[in-house]
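In response to a reviewer's request, we include the raw inputs and outputs for one of the modeled complexes. The two entities were modeled together in a single run.
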Amino acid sequence: MDEFTAPTIDWAALSPVLITLAGASVVLLASLFLPPGVRRGFGAAVAAICFVGAAAAAIALFVADESGRGIVSEAIRRDRLAELAQVLVMGAGLLTVGVSYREPERVERAGEYWALLLTAASGMAFFVAANNLMTLFLGLEWFSICLYVLTAIAVERLPGLEAGLKYLIVGSFGSAILLFGSALVYGATGAIGFEEIAAGTAEGERLFLVAGLAMVLVGLGFKASAAPFHMWTPDVYEGAPTPVTGFMAAATKVAALVVTLRLLVTAFPGEEELWTVALAVIVCASLAWGNLAALVQVSVKRMLAYSSISHAGFLLMPIAAGNELGGRALLYYLIAYSAMSVGAFAVVAVRERELAAPVTVGNLAGFGWERPFLGGSMALFMFGFIGLPPAGIFLGKIYAFAAVIERGWTWLAIVGAVFTAVSIYYYVGVIRAMFMQPRELAVAAGGSPPPDRLLVASVAASVVVAVGSLLAADPLIDIARDAVEFLPFPVG
Amino acid sequence: METTVLILLPIAGAVALWFAPWLTPRAAGGFALLVALAELAFWIGTALNFDFGAAEPQAGADRVWFADLDVAYRVGLHDYTLWLVGLTAVGTAAAVGYGFWVGRERAGVYLSLLLFLEGATVGVFAAQDLVLFYVFWEAMLIPLYVLIGVWGGPGRLGATVKFVVYTMAGSLLMLVAIIAAGLQAGTFDMTSAAGRGSSTWIFLGFAAAFAVKAPLFPFHGWLPDAYRESPPEVAAVLSGVISKTAAYGFLAIAIPFYPGPAEDWRVPALVLASIGLVYGSLLAFRAPDVRGVVAYSSLAQMNLILIGLFAANASGYTGALLQMVNHGLISAALFLLAGAIERRASTGQLVLLGGLARGRPVLATILITTGVIALAVPGSSAFAAEFLVLNGAFAVGWGWAVVGAIAIVLAAMYMLRLVSAVLHENVGSAVPAEALDLRPAEVGVIAPLVVVLLALSFWPAAITDRLSGALF
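The model returned the following structure tokens for the whole complex.
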């Protein structure tokens, strides 16, 4: 028996994970000693610094890594795909810090909130680099548990607790399916590393392999909130504190979709004809369910939740194409989408604090003229989610459609176009409420809260990313290409 | 370079107005009007230096936007687009002037949206790249949506939903068609012959967007509400200028890029356009209000233009292009006049109007002049254009020309009905005795449109002789 040798650990490659994790520990420990008055400011500052630091580290790695390689005994990958996803997650985290700084319920639990936010981002940074089924599951649970707690962190709010419990149960169910699927894949191929699975699929037990692949897809579908695995999404998005919802909508989607891309392309290239079709079905289901259900929503957060389900459909479309153009499309789309998600929920948070009540399409009336910058930004986000210029999702959709058309699935692009047309109605409904309807509701007793500069700065940053991604499309698409070009895409 | 200025000048003016909310309405209006007039002056300068013989787009620019799909910021003006850009500049300047004079609420935002719309429309005409074309195409929708939704009449919310859903449903099919066409060709460059093909589906994708926006019968469901609920100057731009982008799409993209499918679908398209022409004329004759008459006559005229385009010969194209400019000016002037009448009588219902001519000579003169040109009286520029269109249609089949000729009679009927119901007959119950004649500012806005129409009536060859024939 060989003696155990510890793997060499590439500390630099882990730095985005470690920086955020260290920040979380600092915040937790310090909040034991700091007086309550400064906890919030300290936690937010540490969180912001760590997100910036982790993003800077990821950018440095991205620049340095011409080609990817497996590290820590091939358990995780050090490559540009992971690093770009880490940058996006950290960016979403940084924006979320600005959005949540003045969230009213944070005072008592200031330390925990920032620590959990940092830990969740850390888990996602780990997850997107996963290179075998074990680290994949570990990363998934790591950030999911943080999100369960973050959802329910305002313990005096019943809807938050309900949402947290629901998320915990449904999310654990999804994780269990993913774990079972991983076991089947291991049983079929005798491997847990992605490349080894790809190598082992030829002689493996076909039935186990296919069942395992299906179950892994289901598990990831839960996290990406793709239909028909989306049931938790509206309730959790509605119940969670609004900044947390924004973070989930942006960062969780980035993490889940990047891992889906990596897993399917590197581990199951031989099963391409199975998973591309399966994904196409999931895409259609998500587009149909998300868009049709969003039409009848009254609560803006629920509406945005269904919109997020429909965007899961649009984002899975390029993965279903299975070609390199699709990989580029996915990452470019995610850049604009993640910024706009945080921004949109930030605007909802402002209205929520103003009214001290859940935001509905009705009580947004007049908001656009009261706060022209936030209202205008929200209008940009809504037009952008439809896929209208000048927001980058416009090009993201063009790329996603181009990817499936290049594969020869023009029908899928037409399905996308049809449901985009459906989505106009509910996105435009928000704009109509903000700008075209006279206000009816008075502001909550005590008057409007003071303008929140940090939140406005976060929204402004989202706007800059949303519009900038359209104008600077060429460099961003080059970055997206760098991130995916080494992946062994099975099609064309 | 000049084209880029023509696109960006109004957009820059719009953005400047957004970031200057402290301006008084008067200052904002003055600034917007100045930008609109500068745009017009710049267009005149461009037109004076234009080489009308060239087949290639001129005064353009070409900068890479994203290289992997070969999408670029490619713009430039053809001789036929030059006239449409001019129409945009004239129409928008009139609309901005009118909006400024009327004093809309939140004037800065209102006028900046009109300017933004102008920039996007010029972009549609000037784009030489399909993705860029689509960007400008969709960018037109946003200001229109807000302009109608915020400043429109009581039924504006329903009107905007209909308008946006109709136009987007068409344009999303075009998006799929654009992507498919671009991937097939390996480039989105519109000047490259590689983009052209024989795919019926791609042709129909383009045709869907243009048919809704024009609108071709029976895709006009959004039109009556949108034209009735808009502020008059927005209706003027919408029917005068924006509808021309759709005709331009048929003229410059759908028909020349896909000649085979266009040939196959010519008869159905001509049937629809003929129905639209007659049906629109009849509805205009039956419409109970001023705006209704103008709106349905606009539907009829657009379908006449489409007949000229679908005829797909030199005469049809030339006539259609001249009629695009004519109709743009006529319907802009008529909608502004409708606005002036509604301001005086607080209604556009024809039964409540009448007798406005007595004591209001300027209003009567301008309305009658515009109406007479609109009904294509011999000698008017509209007559020249319709003659060319019918000539082109005749070459395809004499039946189409007969339908067109019938429609000209109908045009005379609804225009004269409008003129007499507003100006003559007994004084309507809604017309106050103290209602003023057109104010100098209104004359200053509307009269230039009519003057250009008269000039074109004397000299339609100003346009028809300055087409290089690159199209045919």
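As requested, we also summarize the result in words. Chain B has a mean pLDDT of 89. Strands of chain B lie at 58-66, 71-77.
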